[in-house]
């Protein structure tokens, strides 16, 4: 895997790290947490905060894996992760809702249209913000947003750009 | 330019009363609580001096009092470190263009008998290691004197807006700035810790079994600290790399940029090129974006990113390229950085002709590593050994961080470059061990040392700890 020479993971690399991705059926049930943390680093808050013990780590340096069935989609891991490496995906009809950390200004508002960025910062489309957990309500001091987008972008979009006139 | 909005920090709350300082006779707006160089930078002044022989412009480099890049004449006194000297209303600041002379008309300060501070344990450095050492030494029963040459406690924590890694009981998930607040609060709660800010330790001496630390407060007052044990937690100093024009103002150590924007809310520039894709360079890139500064690229000579992947991913998805196997050839600009020339390098680290790229930037950030600040340990005669895995020369010590001189301890980056999390654990161990060595702590405290040692082992057990462990093998003795 050469994610360390590029600075991002491809979806194939992510599959290799996570073993398997959640099934389409699971993705439609409720939001599911996806850790994009392929490197062994000494870090455990995701495992410690998870209320259903869905984050699996054998030791503090292990790569976090998620038991997709146990995951209730509460987003606490997204809120706490110091590496801003946890996301949630939820399929709804022909749309997907991606939940991600957003530590930049401005924090978008519910209903606002935002530009979707992939893992290398390319603009790949537009989405609509459907949920915002502001910093003061976040358990990890990080604002978290959920953005609705075309379903085919769910595994590419990992950030947004807020453009206001 | 000053920052008014920030996703994490609130500068309006922090800024003190408005005052006026004078640069070469011109009035400049400043705020109480900020250092001279920060106010100058906010006013757009980047050239702080010209070299005496070749008349080359000089700017800021480390911003934490460790280099000589920001020396200026303040109120007639030459060679003042303007990066750690606070502004005062009416201050007169001038550039040094020739070898400065001491003023002949001003009265020198009267050297009365210096103030004498007696403590059980003297701790030099109020960063993560020093603060934890103070807290635990105090809890183990010791009377502590803690000195730091900066105007605030917290060391480099005060400019870390990112959340820390590790376990939650080790502050994982908490931002560095917040950890600094928490530790400072803990120190203030303890009556047997006395804190001396703006106080530089200029000598560490041994008088029989007593240790003597000679301090200078606010550049003019001599203070003597005596203790049964001393803990040196003096941190580290940013490294420099050779390239053409690497002395142009606008080429800053990564930490200096963090000090500008995160501690004092001063925008370091508009467009930045970062050299080094270790954790410091990657974190800096994200912090610059948070402060509204454009990051053009991160340049890394190694074929892969040296820092945590997750820090790289954070800036990649905001569109920052990371150019591995690249190096900076030169900086260009008249009085300050105007552009940087970068090229790809081959297997033998030689630039490949024809691969040059030009970046129009006004700041070049050097995040090319740190070296431990061991000057005081060296001076008092502790045994030193070279361990490149730990950042260079470090002291020989045992598992409780006691050096080859009984009663002198080391902790944090001055013991070897690592993480703030490990600095805090080392501080805890050194604090308790010093209290034990001074004959104050009860043997039950040994359990706490063992606990912290276990946590350190655990933290270092992954791939990122391997290099550190290799270095420790060379310098830790039984």
* Low-pLDDT stretches of chain A: none
Q: Portion of residues in helices of chain A?
A: 10-25%
The most extensive interface, with participating residues per chain, is: A-B, 46 and 47 residues
| CATH architecture classification name of the largest domain in chain B | 3-Layer(bba) Sandwich
Residue ranges of chain B: pLDDT <50 for 5 or more in a row? none
Helix percent of chain B reads 10-25%
Which overall shape of chain B is indicated by the principal axes computed on the Cα atoms?
globular
Biggest β-sheet: strands ordered side by side in the sheet of chain A: 1-4-5-8-7-6-9
User: What's the arrangement of strands in the largest beta sheet of chain B?
Assistant: 2-1-7-5-6
Q: How many domain regions of chain A? A: 1
CATH class of the largest domain in chain B: Alpha Beta
Proportion of strand residues of chain A: 25-35%
Sum up the structure in keywords:
heterodimer; A: 165 residues; alpha+beta; seven-stranded antiparallel β-sheet; 5 helices; 9 strands; B: 478 residues; alpha/beta; Ubiquitin-like (UB roll); FAD/NAD(P)-binding domain; five-stranded mixed β-sheet; 28 strands; 25% helix
Please characterize this protein's 3D structure.
Chain A has 165 residues and is of the alpha+beta class. Chain A has one domain. In chain A, 17% of the residues lie in helices and 29% in strands. Chain A has five helices and nine strands; from the N terminus they run αααβαββαββββββ. A seven-stranded antiparallel β-sheet of chain A has the order 1-4-5-8-7-6-9. The longest helix of chain A is centred in the first third of the chain and has 8 residues. Chain A is globular and about 50 Å long. Chain A starts with a helix and ends with a strand. Chain B has 478 residues and is an alpha/beta fold. Chain B has three domains: 84 residues, 2Fe-2S iron-sulphur cluster binding domain, sarcosine oxidase, alpha subunit, N-terminal domain (Ubiquitin-like (UB roll), Roll), CATH 3.10.20.440; 228 residues, FAD/NAD(P)-binding domain; 119 residues, FAD/NAD(P)-binding domain, CATH 3.50.50.60. Helices cover 25% and strands 27% of the residues of chain B. Chain B is built from eleven helices and 28 strands. In chain B, the strands form eight sheets. Chain B has a five-stranded mixed β-sheet, covered by helices on one side. Chain B has a five-stranded parallel β-sheet with strand order 11-10-9-15-28, covered by helices on one side. A five-stranded parallel β-sheet of chain B has the order 17-24-18-19-20. In chain B, helix 3 packs parallel to helix 4, helix 3 runs parallel beside helix 9 and helix 6 packs parallel to helix 7. The chains are: A alpha+beta (165), B alpha/beta (478).
